[in-house]
Design brief:
single chain, about 325 residues, alpha/beta, Dihydrofolate Reductase, subunit A, 2 domains, eleven-stranded mixed β-sheet, 8 helices, globular
């Protein structure tokens, strides 16, 4: 069943107020996760006047979220609470702690599976709410990863300009060092940047590419070892990592079995041809193709699939009973 990302009963200023309060809950939950996890206890929380979580007794009617050891955050508000959809969407990311990190990826694509035109034009296939979603994921994560193609095509800033919250470490993957150093991620001082290339393309005593710190990892001109990069990021304390794109980069992490969750946002547009979204070596038989557990959210005019790849990989996901046909929009 689909969940609207904003409440249908809220309009104008009321909707923005609901969205702002829901995001405050999400941001506070992410910031409190490590401390709450150390207690090893089930605990309930509401949102205080200072927009931080405040502990309340279990079963308290003001409780919004509960922490459950080994599982993470869980919503405890009523199903019709207008804040529920936004908070529910991000709680799996908020639940990551040092002992149980998470890597999440996102692609926004057309109905026919493309993330951009052949020319590289992609602004914007998905709508404004999905752009806001990417800024929220950046704010929740310690590092955001993009490939050289995304930097060349979009010249992104990769900061959290649209939401309250810190901007993450920017990580640009360019195995053979084809990019110029004049892109914004290498020239501005907004936040630290790692410029990742294959180790064979590093130069002794060279440490920076523009303002970015150079990191050489295992790989060659055709690609880097994503697992080696993740080891470096975990060693830096990055417990939440967001692979923002593009399709080649997300596919690389998916193929390497390094993603815990995958968000695919589908816009109601047909491109006919273009740059593909997810691509990886095909399975021999349909029965071998992954079918991860998923949730569905309406996000403005788009539809977001939140796929739980970690549960799928474990092979212990219970089959969810669903009605044969349900209208979600």
């Amino acid at each position: 069943m689909g969940h609207p990302i904003t409440a249908s009963t809220a309009h104008g200023d009321d909707r923005r107020s609901v969205s702002d309060e829901a995001w405050a809950i999400v941001h506070a939950a992410a910031g409190a996760a490590d401390e709450v996890a150390e207690s090893g206890q089930v605990a309930a929380f509401t949102l205080g006047a200072d927009r931080q979580l405040r502990a309340v007794p279990l079963g308290d009617r003001t409780a919004i979220v509960e922490w459950r050891p080994g599982a993470g955050w869980e919503m405890v508000v009523a199903a019709d609470d207008p804040r529920r959809a936004i908070v529910d969407l991000y709680l799996p990311v908020c639940s990551a702690v040092a002992a149980r990190p998470i890597t999440i990826a996102h692609v926004g694509q057309s109905l026919d599976g493309f993330i951009a035109m052949q020319s590289g034009e992609s602004h914007w296939i998905t709508g404004d709410e999905n752009i806001l979603h990417m800024h929220r994921l950046r704010a929740l994560c310690d590092a955001v990863i993009v490939g050289a193609g995304t930097v060349a095509a979009d010249n992104p800033q990769l900061t959290t300009r649209l939401v309250p919250g810190p901007s993450p470490l920017r990580v640009v993957i360019d195995p053979a060092r084809r990019l110029d150093a004049d892109h914004r991620v290498f020239t501005d001082a907004a936040v630290d940047t790692l410029y990742v290339c294959a180790r064979t393309f590093t130069v002794p005593d060279e440490h920076h590419f523009g303002r970015a710190l150079i990191l050489g990892v295992d790989g060659d001109a055709d690609g880097i070892d994503a697992a080696d990069l993740m080891r470096h990021l975990r060693a830096r304390g990055c417990r939440r990592v967001f692979v923002e794109g593009g399709g080649v980069t997300v596919s690389m992490f998916l193929e390497a079995n390094l993603l815990d969750r995958l968000h695919i946002t589908i816009a109601a547009v047909l491109l006919g041809d273009g740059r593909p979204a997810i691509r990886f070596p095909p399975r021999v038989a349909l029965r071998d193709s992954p079918r991860p557990p998923y949730r569905v959210f309406r996000m403005g005019g788009d539809i977001l699939f939140d796929c739980d790849l970690a549960t799928s990989a474990a092979g212990d996901a219970p089959a969810e009973e669903m009605p044969a046909v349900t209208r979600i929009i």
